[in-house]
Amino acid sequence: MLKLAKYLKGYRFMTVAGPLFKLVEAVFELIIPLVVAYIVDTAIPAGQTGNFKGLIVGGVIILALGVLGLAFALTAQFFASRASLGFGTNLRRDLYAHINSFSYAELDKFSTASLITRLTADVNQTQQAVAMFIRLVLRAPFIATGAVVMAMLIDVKLSSIFVIAALLIALALFLIMRFTIPSYKGVQDKLDDVTRLTRENLSGARVVRAFDAEEREKTVFGNASESLAKASIKVSSVSALLNPLTYSVLNVAVIALLYFGGKTVYYGNLTQGEIIALVNYMTQILNALIVFANLLVTFTKASASAARINEVFDVSPSMREGAGAIPDKTAPAVSLENVSFTYSGASSPSVENVNLTIPRGAVVGILGGTGSGKSTLVNLISRLYDVTDGAVKIFGNDVRDYENAQLRSTFGVVPQKAVLFQGSVRDNVKWGNENASDEEIIKALKISQSYDFVFAKKNGLDEEISQGGKNLSGGQRQRLTIARALVSEPDILILDDSSSALDFATDAKLRKSLDELRKPEGLTLIAVSQRASSVMYSDIIVVMDDGKIEAVGSHDELMKSSQIYREIYSSQNKEDI
Protein backbone atom coordinates (compact mmCIF):
# COMPACT_ATOMS: atom_id res chain seq x y z
CA MET A 1 0.00 0.00 0.00
CA LEU A 2 2.87 2.41 0.71
CA LYS A 3 3.85 2.30 -2.98
CA LEU A 4 0.40 3.57 -3.86
CA ALA A 5 0.44 6.46 -1.35
CA LYS A 6 1.52 8.85 -4.12
CA TYR A 7 -2.01 8.67 -5.54
CA LEU A 8 -3.20 10.69 -2.54
CA LYS A 9 -1.56 13.72 -4.16
CA GLY A 10 -4.00 16.61 -4.01
CA TYR A 11 -5.67 15.12 -0.94
CA ARG A 12 -2.78 15.34 1.53
CA PHE A 13 -4.55 17.87 3.77
CA MET A 14 -7.66 15.67 4.02
CA THR A 15 -5.53 12.59 4.64
CA VAL A 16 -3.80 14.29 7.58
CA ALA A 17 -6.72 16.35 8.92
CA GLY A 18 -9.20 13.45 8.84
CA PRO A 19 -7.39 11.32 11.45
CA LEU A 20 -6.77 14.42 13.61
CA PHE A 21 -10.49 15.23 13.68
CA LYS A 22 -11.23 11.62 14.67
CA LEU A 23 -8.55 11.93 17.34
CA VAL A 24 -10.29 14.94 18.88
CA GLU A 25 -13.59 13.05 18.78
CA ALA A 26 -11.87 10.15 20.59
CA VAL A 27 -10.66 12.53 23.32
CA PHE A 28 -14.24 13.66 23.90
CA GLU A 29 -15.33 10.02 24.10
CA LEU A 30 -12.67 9.25 26.73
CA ILE A 31 -13.86 12.15 28.91
CA ILE A 32 -17.47 10.93 29.02
CA PRO A 33 -16.90 8.03 31.52
CA LEU A 34 -15.30 10.50 33.96
CA VAL A 35 -18.38 12.72 33.74
CA VAL A 36 -20.61 9.68 34.28
CA ALA A 37 -18.54 8.78 37.38
CA TYR A 38 -18.97 12.35 38.66
CA ILE A 39 -22.74 12.13 38.19
CA VAL A 40 -22.95 8.76 39.96
CA ASP A 41 -20.74 9.80 42.89
CA THR A 42 -21.86 13.40 43.45
CA ALA A 43 -25.03 14.23 41.56
CA ILE A 44 -27.01 11.16 42.68
CA PRO A 45 -25.29 9.96 45.91
CA ALA A 46 -26.69 6.82 47.44
CA GLY A 47 -29.28 7.25 50.17
CA GLN A 48 -30.01 10.95 49.43
CA THR A 49 -32.51 12.81 47.29
CA GLY A 50 -29.74 13.77 44.89
CA ASN A 51 -28.05 16.87 43.58
CA PHE A 52 -30.20 17.68 40.54
CA LYS A 53 -28.08 20.69 39.63
CA GLY A 54 -25.03 18.46 39.33
CA LEU A 55 -27.09 15.96 37.32
CA ILE A 56 -28.15 18.68 34.88
CA VAL A 57 -24.61 20.05 34.58
CA GLY A 58 -23.21 16.56 34.00
CA GLY A 59 -25.93 15.83 31.42
CA VAL A 60 -25.23 19.07 29.57
CA ILE A 61 -21.50 18.28 29.50
CA ILE A 62 -22.18 14.80 28.08
CA LEU A 63 -24.57 16.27 25.49
CA ALA A 64 -22.03 18.92 24.48
CA LEU A 65 -19.27 16.34 24.18
CA GLY A 66 -21.57 14.17 22.05
CA VAL A 67 -22.56 17.01 19.71
CA LEU A 68 -18.97 18.21 19.31
CA GLY A 69 -17.79 14.64 18.78
CA LEU A 70 -20.46 14.13 16.10
CA ALA A 71 -19.37 17.32 14.31
CA PHE A 72 -15.72 16.26 14.31
CA ALA A 73 -16.66 12.72 13.23
CA LEU A 74 -18.77 13.96 10.29
CA THR A 75 -15.96 16.27 9.16
CA ALA A 76 -13.49 13.39 9.30
CA GLN A 77 -15.94 11.18 7.37
CA PHE A 78 -16.24 13.87 4.68
CA PHE A 79 -12.44 14.10 4.37
CA ALA A 80 -12.14 10.30 4.26
CA SER A 81 -14.74 9.99 1.50
CA ARG A 82 -13.23 12.73 -0.67
CA ALA A 83 -9.65 11.51 -0.23
CA SER A 84 -10.46 7.83 -0.84
CA LEU A 85 -12.52 8.56 -3.96
CA GLY A 86 -9.77 10.84 -5.27
CA PHE A 87 -7.20 8.15 -4.52
CA GLY A 88 -9.25 5.55 -6.39
CA THR A 89 -9.75 7.86 -9.38
CA ASN A 90 -6.04 8.72 -9.62
CA LEU A 91 -4.97 5.10 -9.21
CA ARG A 92 -7.48 3.75 -11.72
CA ARG A 93 -6.52 6.40 -14.30
CA ASP A 94 -2.78 5.72 -13.98
CA LEU A 95 -3.23 1.96 -13.98
CA TYR A 96 -5.36 2.14 -17.13
CA ALA A 97 -2.81 4.45 -18.80
CA HIS A 98 0.03 2.13 -17.80
CA ILE A 99 -1.77 -0.90 -19.26
CA ASN A 100 -2.34 1.03 -22.48
CA SER A 101 1.40 1.71 -22.70
CA PHE A 102 2.08 -2.04 -22.91
CA SER A 103 3.13 -3.62 -26.15
CA TYR A 104 1.71 -6.97 -27.19
CA ALA A 105 4.61 -8.61 -25.36
CA GLU A 106 3.53 -7.18 -21.96
CA LEU A 107 -0.16 -7.82 -22.59
CA ASP A 108 0.68 -11.47 -23.17
CA LYS A 109 1.81 -11.70 -19.51
CA PHE A 110 -1.64 -10.91 -18.09
CA SER A 111 -5.02 -12.27 -19.01
CA THR A 112 -7.72 -9.77 -19.93
CA ALA A 113 -9.88 -11.02 -17.06
CA SER A 114 -7.06 -10.46 -14.58
CA LEU A 115 -6.50 -6.89 -15.77
CA ILE A 116 -10.22 -6.17 -15.50
CA THR A 117 -10.29 -7.50 -11.92
CA ARG A 118 -7.27 -5.42 -10.97
CA LEU A 119 -8.79 -2.27 -12.50
CA THR A 120 -12.09 -2.77 -10.69
CA ALA A 121 -12.22 -5.01 -7.62
CA ASP A 122 -8.60 -4.53 -6.53
CA VAL A 123 -8.68 -0.74 -6.92
CA ASN A 124 -11.99 -0.61 -5.03
CA GLN A 125 -10.47 -2.66 -2.21
CA THR A 126 -7.50 -0.30 -1.84
CA GLN A 127 -9.85 2.68 -2.03
CA GLN A 128 -11.89 1.26 0.85
CA ALA A 129 -8.72 0.73 2.86
CA VAL A 130 -7.78 4.40 2.42
CA ALA A 131 -11.19 5.49 3.73
CA MET A 132 -10.87 3.17 6.73
CA PHE A 133 -7.30 4.35 7.33
CA ILE A 134 -8.27 8.01 7.51
CA ARG A 135 -11.25 7.35 9.77
CA LEU A 136 -9.81 4.80 12.15
CA VAL A 137 -6.02 4.54 12.02
CA LEU A 138 -5.56 6.96 14.92
CA ARG A 139 -8.92 6.69 16.63
CA ALA A 140 -9.06 2.95 17.31
CA PRO A 141 -5.57 2.54 18.84
CA PHE A 142 -5.90 5.89 20.66
CA ILE A 143 -9.21 4.82 22.25
CA ALA A 144 -7.74 1.44 23.27
CA THR A 145 -4.55 2.97 24.65
CA GLY A 146 -6.32 5.96 26.18
CA ALA A 147 -8.86 3.77 27.96
CA VAL A 148 -6.04 1.72 29.51
CA VAL A 149 -4.27 4.91 30.64
CA MET A 150 -7.47 6.37 32.10
CA ALA A 151 -8.10 3.08 33.90
CA MET A 152 -4.59 3.25 35.39
CA LEU A 153 -5.31 6.77 36.66
CA ILE A 154 -8.33 5.36 38.49
CA ASP A 155 -6.72 2.18 39.83
CA VAL A 156 -3.39 0.65 38.77
CA LYS A 157 -4.13 -2.87 40.05
CA LEU A 158 -7.47 -3.18 38.28
CA SER A 159 -5.98 -1.72 35.09
CA SER A 160 -3.78 -4.84 34.83
CA ILE A 161 -6.94 -6.63 33.68
CA PHE A 162 -7.08 -4.20 30.75
CA VAL A 163 -3.43 -4.86 29.82
CA ILE A 164 -3.82 -8.65 29.93
CA ALA A 165 -7.00 -8.50 27.81
CA ALA A 166 -5.34 -6.21 25.25
CA LEU A 167 -2.30 -8.52 24.95
CA LEU A 168 -4.50 -11.60 24.43
CA ILE A 169 -6.49 -9.85 21.71
CA ALA A 170 -3.31 -8.61 20.02
CA LEU A 171 -2.02 -12.20 19.94
CA ALA A 172 -5.25 -13.40 18.35
CA LEU A 173 -5.04 -10.63 15.74
CA PHE A 174 -1.46 -11.56 14.86
CA LEU A 175 -2.27 -15.25 14.39
CA ILE A 176 -5.34 -14.59 12.26
CA MET A 177 -3.56 -12.04 10.06
CA ARG A 178 -0.68 -14.43 9.50
CA PHE A 179 -3.11 -16.87 7.89
CA THR A 180 -5.41 -14.47 6.05
CA ILE A 181 -2.89 -12.20 4.27
CA PRO A 182 -1.69 -14.85 1.78
CA SER A 183 -5.16 -16.40 1.57
CA TYR A 184 -6.82 -13.23 0.31
CA LYS A 185 -4.46 -13.13 -2.69
CA GLY A 186 -5.61 -16.64 -3.56
CA VAL A 187 -9.22 -15.49 -3.39
CA GLN A 188 -8.50 -12.65 -5.84
CA ASP A 189 -6.79 -15.10 -8.22
CA LYS A 190 -9.89 -17.29 -8.16
CA LEU A 191 -11.98 -14.19 -8.84
CA ASP A 192 -9.82 -13.73 -11.96
CA ASP A 193 -10.89 -17.20 -13.11
CA VAL A 194 -14.58 -16.42 -12.60
CA THR A 195 -14.19 -13.11 -14.47
CA ARG A 196 -12.37 -14.87 -17.32
CA LEU A 197 -15.07 -17.53 -17.67
CA THR A 198 -17.81 -14.88 -17.55
CA ARG A 199 -16.10 -12.83 -20.26
CA GLU A 200 -15.43 -15.86 -22.47
CA ASN A 201 -18.99 -17.18 -22.22
CA LEU A 202 -20.65 -13.83 -22.82
CA SER A 203 -18.43 -12.95 -25.79
CA GLY A 204 -18.63 -16.49 -27.16
CA ALA A 205 -22.32 -17.08 -26.45
CA ARG A 206 -23.04 -17.95 -30.09
CA VAL A 207 -20.29 -20.55 -30.17
CA VAL A 208 -21.53 -22.09 -26.91
CA ARG A 209 -25.03 -22.41 -28.33
CA ALA A 210 -23.80 -23.64 -31.72
CA PHE A 211 -22.08 -26.58 -30.03
CA ASP A 212 -24.91 -27.15 -27.53
CA ALA A 213 -22.37 -26.65 -24.74
CA GLU A 214 -24.55 -24.67 -22.32
CA GLU A 215 -24.69 -27.40 -19.70
CA ARG A 216 -20.97 -28.08 -19.91
CA GLU A 217 -20.15 -24.38 -19.56
CA LYS A 218 -22.59 -24.09 -16.65
CA THR A 219 -20.72 -26.91 -14.95
CA VAL A 220 -17.32 -25.30 -15.59
CA PHE A 221 -18.55 -21.93 -14.33
CA GLY A 222 -20.24 -23.59 -11.35
CA ASN A 223 -17.00 -25.33 -10.41
CA ALA A 224 -15.06 -22.07 -10.64
CA SER A 225 -17.69 -20.25 -8.57
CA GLU A 226 -17.69 -23.03 -6.00
CA SER A 227 -13.91 -22.90 -5.79
CA LEU A 228 -14.10 -19.13 -5.22
CA ALA A 229 -16.84 -19.61 -2.63
CA LYS A 230 -14.86 -22.27 -0.74
CA ALA A 231 -11.71 -20.13 -0.70
CA SER A 232 -13.69 -17.08 0.42
CA ILE A 233 -15.53 -19.01 3.13
CA LYS A 234 -12.29 -20.53 4.39
CA VAL A 235 -10.51 -17.21 4.79
CA SER A 236 -13.67 -15.41 5.97
CA SER A 237 -14.34 -18.05 8.61
CA VAL A 238 -10.89 -17.42 10.06
CA SER A 239 -11.39 -13.63 9.89
CA ALA A 240 -14.81 -14.06 11.50
CA LEU A 241 -13.11 -15.43 14.62
CA LEU A 242 -11.90 -11.90 15.40
CA ASN A 243 -15.18 -10.59 16.77
CA PRO A 244 -16.16 -13.57 18.97
CA LEU A 245 -12.60 -13.88 20.29
CA THR A 246 -12.52 -10.18 21.09
CA TYR A 247 -15.93 -10.28 22.76
CA SER A 248 -15.03 -13.38 24.76
CA VAL A 249 -11.79 -11.94 26.10
CA LEU A 250 -13.37 -8.56 26.89
CA ASN A 251 -16.44 -10.07 28.54
CA VAL A 252 -14.24 -12.24 30.75
CA ALA A 253 -12.26 -9.09 31.55
CA VAL A 254 -15.49 -7.24 32.48
CA ILE A 255 -16.49 -10.11 34.81
CA ALA A 256 -13.06 -10.00 36.44
CA LEU A 257 -13.32 -6.22 36.72
CA LEU A 258 -16.73 -6.39 38.40
CA TYR A 259 -15.58 -9.13 40.77
CA PHE A 260 -12.36 -7.49 41.93
CA GLY A 261 -13.81 -3.98 41.62
CA GLY A 262 -16.75 -4.94 43.79
CA LYS A 263 -14.37 -6.02 46.52
CA THR A 264 -12.46 -2.75 46.19
CA VAL A 265 -15.69 -0.76 46.55
CA TYR A 266 -16.67 -2.88 49.54
CA TYR A 267 -13.41 -2.01 51.31
CA GLY A 268 -13.87 1.66 50.41
CA ASN A 269 -10.86 2.05 48.11
CA LEU A 270 -12.99 2.95 45.05
CA THR A 271 -16.38 4.54 44.51
CA GLN A 272 -19.27 3.11 42.56
CA GLY A 273 -18.86 5.80 39.95
CA GLU A 274 -15.23 4.85 39.37
CA ILE A 275 -16.23 1.20 38.85
CA ILE A 276 -18.84 2.31 36.31
CA ALA A 277 -16.14 4.42 34.61
CA LEU A 278 -13.83 1.38 34.46
CA VAL A 279 -16.61 -0.73 32.92
CA ASN A 280 -17.23 2.05 30.36
CA TYR A 281 -13.54 2.15 29.53
CA MET A 282 -13.56 -1.63 29.13
CA THR A 283 -16.53 -1.28 26.75
CA GLN A 284 -14.64 1.40 24.82
CA ILE A 285 -11.65 -0.91 24.54
CA LEU A 286 -13.95 -3.66 23.31
CA ASN A 287 -15.47 -1.43 20.60
CA ALA A 288 -12.09 0.00 19.62
CA LEU A 289 -10.47 -3.42 19.30
CA ILE A 290 -13.40 -4.76 17.26
CA VAL A 291 -13.06 -1.78 14.92
CA PHE A 292 -9.29 -2.29 14.84
CA ALA A 293 -9.80 -5.96 14.02
CA ASN A 294 -12.09 -5.08 11.11
CA LEU A 295 -9.57 -2.45 10.04
CA LEU A 296 -6.88 -5.10 9.93
CA VAL A 297 -9.10 -7.41 7.88
CA THR A 298 -9.69 -4.58 5.40
CA PHE A 299 -5.98 -3.81 5.28
CA THR A 300 -5.20 -7.50 4.78
CA LYS A 301 -7.47 -7.61 1.75
CA ALA A 302 -6.11 -4.29 0.51
CA SER A 303 -2.49 -5.44 0.84
CA ALA A 304 -3.27 -8.45 -1.36
CA SER A 305 -4.99 -6.19 -3.90
CA ALA A 306 -2.17 -3.64 -3.75
CA ALA A 307 0.35 -6.39 -4.46
CA ARG A 308 -1.60 -7.38 -7.57
CA ILE A 309 -1.82 -3.75 -8.71
CA ASN A 310 1.90 -3.19 -8.12
CA GLU A 311 2.58 -6.35 -10.10
CA VAL A 312 1.15 -4.56 -13.14
CA PHE A 313 2.99 -1.30 -12.39
CA ASP A 314 6.26 -3.24 -11.99
CA VAL A 315 6.05 -4.40 -15.60
CA SER A 316 7.75 -1.75 -17.70
CA PRO A 317 6.89 -1.39 -21.38
CA SER A 318 9.64 -3.12 -23.35
CA MET A 319 9.16 -0.79 -26.31
CA ARG A 320 10.76 2.62 -26.01
CA GLU A 321 9.48 5.39 -28.20
CA GLY A 322 12.04 6.71 -30.66
CA ALA A 323 13.16 10.31 -30.85
CA GLY A 324 11.69 10.66 -34.32
CA ALA A 325 13.01 10.09 -37.81
CA ILE A 326 12.54 11.63 -41.25
CA PRO A 327 11.19 9.03 -43.71
CA ASP A 328 13.14 8.67 -46.94
CA LYS A 329 10.40 8.16 -49.51
CA THR A 330 12.99 7.07 -52.09
CA ALA A 331 14.03 4.14 -49.89
CA PRO A 332 12.14 0.82 -49.82
CA ALA A 333 8.89 0.99 -47.88
CA VAL A 334 9.92 -2.01 -45.75
CA SER A 335 13.28 -3.68 -45.31
CA LEU A 336 13.73 -6.72 -43.05
CA GLU A 337 17.35 -7.53 -42.20
CA ASN A 338 18.07 -10.90 -40.55
CA VAL A 339 14.88 -10.57 -38.49
CA SER A 340 14.15 -13.16 -35.81
CA PHE A 341 11.52 -13.14 -33.09
CA THR A 342 10.72 -15.45 -30.18
CA TYR A 343 7.61 -15.09 -28.03
CA SER A 344 8.13 -14.87 -24.29
CA GLY A 345 8.27 -18.37 -22.84
CA ALA A 346 8.52 -20.04 -26.27
CA SER A 347 11.22 -22.63 -26.82
CA SER A 348 11.82 -21.78 -30.48
CA PRO A 349 11.55 -18.64 -32.64
CA SER A 350 8.33 -17.93 -34.49
CA VAL A 351 10.20 -15.96 -37.15
CA GLU A 352 13.81 -16.77 -37.95
CA ASN A 353 16.44 -15.04 -40.08
CA VAL A 354 14.02 -13.27 -42.42
CA ASN A 355 15.37 -10.96 -45.12
CA LEU A 356 12.90 -9.12 -47.31
CA THR A 357 12.71 -5.82 -49.21
CA ILE A 358 9.36 -4.28 -50.21
CA PRO A 359 9.51 -1.33 -52.66
CA ARG A 360 7.22 1.65 -52.18
CA GLY A 361 3.88 1.17 -53.95
CA ALA A 362 4.23 -2.60 -54.23
CA VAL A 363 1.48 -5.11 -53.51
CA VAL A 364 2.86 -7.92 -51.39
CA GLY A 365 1.02 -11.12 -50.57
CA ILE A 366 2.16 -13.32 -47.67
CA LEU A 367 1.03 -16.93 -47.90
CA GLY A 368 1.70 -19.98 -45.77
CA GLY A 369 0.19 -22.68 -43.65
CA THR A 370 -1.22 -22.17 -40.15
CA GLY A 371 1.56 -21.33 -37.67
CA SER A 372 4.05 -20.44 -40.41
CA GLY A 373 4.66 -16.97 -38.89
CA LYS A 374 2.68 -14.78 -41.28
CA SER A 375 0.86 -12.70 -38.64
CA THR A 376 3.96 -12.47 -36.48
CA LEU A 377 5.91 -11.08 -39.42
CA VAL A 378 3.43 -8.25 -40.13
CA ASN A 379 3.20 -7.50 -36.39
CA LEU A 380 6.96 -6.96 -36.41
CA ILE A 381 6.72 -4.71 -39.47
CA SER A 382 4.18 -2.43 -37.77
CA ARG A 383 6.07 -2.69 -34.45
CA LEU A 384 3.35 -4.32 -32.43
CA TYR A 385 6.26 -6.46 -31.24
CA ASP A 386 9.96 -5.63 -31.25
CA VAL A 387 12.30 -8.00 -33.04
CA THR A 388 14.50 -10.29 -30.95
CA ASP A 389 17.33 -10.04 -33.48
CA GLY A 390 17.92 -8.06 -36.65
CA ALA A 391 16.24 -4.85 -37.76
CA VAL A 392 13.00 -3.70 -39.39
CA LYS A 393 13.41 -0.53 -41.48
CA ILE A 394 10.56 1.66 -42.71
CA PHE A 395 11.47 4.14 -45.43
CA GLY A 396 15.16 3.84 -44.61
CA ASN A 397 14.93 4.18 -40.80
CA ASP A 398 14.84 1.56 -38.09
CA VAL A 399 11.25 1.19 -36.91
CA ARG A 400 12.49 1.77 -33.33
CA ASP A 401 13.66 5.28 -34.25
CA TYR A 402 10.19 6.60 -35.04
CA GLU A 403 7.88 8.30 -32.56
CA ASN A 404 4.79 6.22 -31.83
CA ALA A 405 2.38 8.74 -33.33
CA GLN A 406 4.58 9.05 -36.42
CA LEU A 407 4.68 5.28 -36.82
CA ARG A 408 0.93 4.83 -36.36
CA SER A 409 0.23 7.49 -39.01
CA THR A 410 2.48 5.60 -41.42
CA PHE A 411 0.61 2.31 -41.02
CA GLY A 412 -2.97 1.30 -41.49
CA VAL A 413 -3.35 -2.06 -39.79
CA VAL A 414 -6.36 -4.33 -40.16
CA PRO A 415 -5.95 -7.10 -37.58
CA GLN A 416 -6.86 -10.72 -38.06
CA LYS A 417 -9.84 -10.41 -35.71
CA ALA A 418 -12.28 -7.70 -36.78
CA VAL A 419 -12.95 -5.62 -33.65
CA LEU A 420 -15.61 -2.92 -33.67
CA PHE A 421 -16.89 -0.77 -30.83
CA GLN A 422 -20.34 0.20 -29.66
CA GLY A 423 -21.37 3.38 -31.44
CA SER A 424 -22.30 4.55 -34.92
CA VAL A 425 -20.66 3.52 -38.18
CA ARG A 426 -19.19 7.03 -38.35
CA ASP A 427 -17.69 6.75 -34.86
CA ASN A 428 -16.06 3.41 -35.67
CA VAL A 429 -14.53 4.55 -38.96
CA LYS A 430 -13.26 7.75 -37.30
CA TRP A 431 -10.96 5.64 -35.12
CA GLY A 432 -8.63 5.82 -38.12
CA ASN A 433 -8.86 9.62 -38.28
CA GLU A 434 -10.94 11.49 -35.72
CA ASN A 435 -11.01 14.58 -37.98
CA ALA A 436 -12.23 12.72 -41.05
CA SER A 437 -15.10 14.37 -42.93
CA ASP A 438 -18.15 12.44 -44.11
CA GLU A 439 -16.78 12.64 -47.67
CA GLU A 440 -13.53 10.97 -46.57
CA ILE A 441 -15.46 8.32 -44.66
CA ILE A 442 -17.67 7.59 -47.66
CA LYS A 443 -14.57 7.29 -49.88
CA ALA A 444 -13.07 4.73 -47.47
CA LEU A 445 -16.38 2.85 -47.36
CA LYS A 446 -16.48 2.64 -51.15
CA ILE A 447 -12.93 1.36 -51.44
CA SER A 448 -13.53 -1.25 -48.72
CA GLN A 449 -16.79 -2.36 -50.39
CA SER A 450 -18.76 -1.25 -47.31
CA TYR A 451 -20.76 1.57 -48.91
CA ASP A 452 -23.67 -0.54 -50.21
CA PHE A 453 -24.51 -2.37 -46.98
CA VAL A 454 -23.98 0.73 -44.79
CA PHE A 455 -26.34 2.93 -46.81
CA ALA A 456 -28.80 0.10 -47.25
CA LYS A 457 -29.48 0.55 -43.54
CA LYS A 458 -32.00 3.12 -42.34
CA ASN A 459 -29.56 5.52 -40.65
CA GLY A 460 -26.53 5.21 -42.93
CA LEU A 461 -23.43 6.54 -41.19
CA ASP A 462 -25.47 7.02 -38.01
CA GLU A 463 -26.47 3.37 -37.87
CA GLU A 464 -25.68 2.02 -34.41
CA ILE A 465 -23.23 -0.86 -34.11
CA SER A 466 -23.66 -3.07 -31.08
CA GLN A 467 -20.77 -4.04 -28.82
CA GLY A 468 -18.24 -6.07 -30.80
CA GLY A 469 -20.25 -5.53 -34.00
CA LYS A 470 -22.61 -8.38 -33.12
CA ASN A 471 -25.36 -6.95 -35.35
CA LEU A 472 -23.13 -7.26 -38.45
CA SER A 473 -21.95 -10.28 -40.39
CA GLY A 474 -18.31 -11.36 -40.29
CA GLY A 475 -17.66 -9.99 -43.76
CA GLN A 476 -19.29 -6.65 -42.93
CA ARG A 477 -17.15 -6.30 -39.82
CA GLN A 478 -14.01 -7.02 -41.82
CA ARG A 479 -14.88 -4.45 -44.46
CA LEU A 480 -15.56 -1.75 -41.85
CA THR A 481 -12.21 -2.41 -40.20
CA ILE A 482 -10.57 -2.00 -43.61
CA ALA A 483 -12.43 1.33 -44.06
CA ARG A 484 -11.22 2.38 -40.62
CA ALA A 485 -7.62 1.79 -41.67
CA LEU A 486 -8.05 3.49 -45.07
CA VAL A 487 -9.53 6.72 -43.67
CA SER A 488 -6.19 7.46 -41.97
CA GLU A 489 -4.59 7.59 -45.45
CA PRO A 490 -1.60 5.41 -44.50
CA ASP A 491 1.57 4.95 -46.51
CA ILE A 492 1.58 1.23 -45.75
CA LEU A 493 -1.63 -0.78 -45.43
CA ILE A 494 -1.43 -4.19 -43.72
CA LEU A 495 -4.30 -6.62 -44.14
CA ASP A 496 -3.76 -9.54 -41.78
CA ASP A 497 -6.04 -12.17 -43.28
CA SER A 498 -8.78 -9.56 -43.06
CA SER A 499 -10.81 -10.70 -46.07
CA SER A 500 -11.26 -14.32 -45.02
CA ALA A 501 -15.01 -13.85 -44.47
CA LEU A 502 -15.56 -12.21 -47.88
CA ASP A 503 -16.95 -14.06 -50.84
CA PHE A 504 -14.71 -14.34 -53.91
CA ALA A 505 -16.57 -11.65 -55.86
CA THR A 506 -16.36 -9.07 -53.06
CA ASP A 507 -12.73 -10.03 -52.43
CA ALA A 508 -11.93 -9.41 -56.10
CA LYS A 509 -13.68 -6.00 -56.03
CA LEU A 510 -11.73 -5.06 -52.90
CA ARG A 511 -8.41 -5.99 -54.52
CA LYS A 512 -9.31 -3.95 -57.61
CA SER A 513 -10.22 -0.87 -55.51
CA LEU A 514 -7.00 -1.09 -53.51
CA ASP A 515 -5.00 -1.52 -56.71
CA GLU A 516 -6.50 1.68 -58.12
CA LEU A 517 -5.78 3.51 -54.88
CA ARG A 518 -2.10 2.57 -54.71
CA LYS A 519 -1.18 3.79 -58.20
CA PRO A 520 -1.72 7.55 -57.77
CA GLU A 521 -1.07 7.69 -54.02
CA GLY A 522 1.85 5.29 -53.74
CA LEU A 523 0.16 3.05 -51.19
CA THR A 524 2.18 -0.01 -50.21
CA LEU A 525 -0.10 -2.97 -49.57
CA ILE A 526 0.90 -6.02 -47.52
CA ALA A 527 -1.80 -8.70 -47.43
CA VAL A 528 -1.70 -11.89 -45.39
CA SER A 529 -4.09 -14.53 -46.64
CA GLN A 530 -4.89 -18.23 -46.51
CA ARG A 531 -6.21 -18.03 -50.06
CA ALA A 532 -3.81 -18.30 -52.96
CA SER A 533 -6.40 -16.56 -55.13
CA SER A 534 -6.22 -13.47 -52.89
CA VAL A 535 -2.47 -13.01 -53.36
CA MET A 536 -1.78 -14.53 -56.77
CA TYR A 537 -2.00 -11.14 -58.53
CA SER A 538 0.41 -9.46 -56.10
CA ASP A 539 3.65 -7.93 -57.35
CA ILE A 540 5.54 -10.00 -54.79
CA ILE A 541 4.35 -13.19 -53.11
CA VAL A 542 6.17 -14.32 -49.97
CA VAL A 543 5.74 -17.98 -49.07
CA MET A 544 6.43 -18.78 -45.41
CA ASP A 545 7.01 -22.11 -43.75
CA ASP A 546 7.89 -22.74 -40.10
CA GLY A 547 8.89 -19.11 -39.45
CA LYS A 548 11.16 -18.82 -42.48
CA ILE A 549 10.72 -17.45 -45.98
CA GLU A 550 10.54 -20.47 -48.23
CA ALA A 551 10.25 -18.56 -51.52
CA VAL A 552 9.67 -15.09 -52.97
CA GLY A 553 8.40 -14.28 -56.44
CA SER A 554 5.41 -13.79 -58.68
CA HIS A 555 2.65 -16.37 -59.13
CA ASP A 556 4.17 -17.77 -62.30
CA GLU A 557 7.64 -17.93 -60.79
CA LEU A 558 6.46 -19.67 -57.63
CA MET A 559 4.40 -22.21 -59.55
CA LYS A 560 7.70 -23.31 -61.06
CA SER A 561 10.04 -22.95 -58.08
CA SER A 562 8.06 -23.49 -54.86
CA GLN A 563 6.55 -26.84 -53.98
CA ILE A 564 4.70 -25.39 -50.97
CA TYR A 565 3.07 -22.69 -53.12
CA ARG A 566 2.06 -25.25 -55.75
CA GLU A 567 0.49 -27.46 -53.08
CA ILE A 568 -1.48 -24.58 -51.55
CA TYR A 569 -2.63 -23.32 -54.94
CA SER A 570 -3.53 -26.77 -56.23
CA SER A 571 -5.50 -27.68 -53.09
CA GLN A 572 -7.65 -24.53 -53.49
CA ASN A 573 -7.98 -24.61 -57.27
CA LYS A 574 -8.47 -28.27 -58.16
CA GLU A 575 -10.12 -27.42 -61.46
CA ASP A 576 -6.81 -25.95 -62.64
CA ILE A 577 -4.79 -29.08 -61.86
Folded structure, characterized:
By secondary structure, this protein is α/β, with parallel strands linked by helices. It folds into two domains: 10-313, ABC transporter type 1, transmembrane domain (ABC transporter transmembrane region fold, Up-down Bundle), CATH 1.20.1560; 334-576, Rossmann fold (3-Layer(aba) Sandwich). Helix content is 62%, strand content 11%. It has a six-stranded mixed beta sheet, with helices on both faces. Strands 2-1-4-5 form a four-stranded antiparallel beta sheet, with helices on one face. Strands 7-8 form a two-stranded antiparallel sheet. Strand 4 and strand 5 form a beta hairpin. The relative contact order is 0.08.
Secondary-structure class: alpha/beta
Rg result = 36 Å
Shape: elongated
Helix content: 55-70%
Condensed summary:
This protein is of the alpha/beta class and 577 residues long.
List the main descriptive attributes of the protein structure presented here:
Rossmann fold; single chain; 62% helix; ABC transporter transmembrane region fold; alpha/beta; six-stranded mixed sheet; elongated; 577 residues; four-stranded antiparallel sheet; 12 strands; 2 domains
How are the elements arranged and paired?
Layout: H1 12-43, H2 52-100, H3 104-107, H4 112-136, H5 139-154, H6 156-203, H7 205-210, H8 214-239, H9 242-266, H10 272-313, E1 334-341, E2 351-358, E3 363-368, H11 374-381, E4 389-394, E5 397-398, H12 404-410, E6 411-414, E7 423-424, H13 425-429, H14 438-447, H15 451-455, E8 464-465, H16 474-486, E9 492-496, H17 504-521, E10 524-529, H18 532-535, E11 540-545, E12 548-553, H19 555-561, H20 563-572
Parallel strand pairs: 3-10, 3-11, 6-9, 9-10
Antiparallel strand pairs: 1-2, 1-4, 4-5, 7-8, 11-12
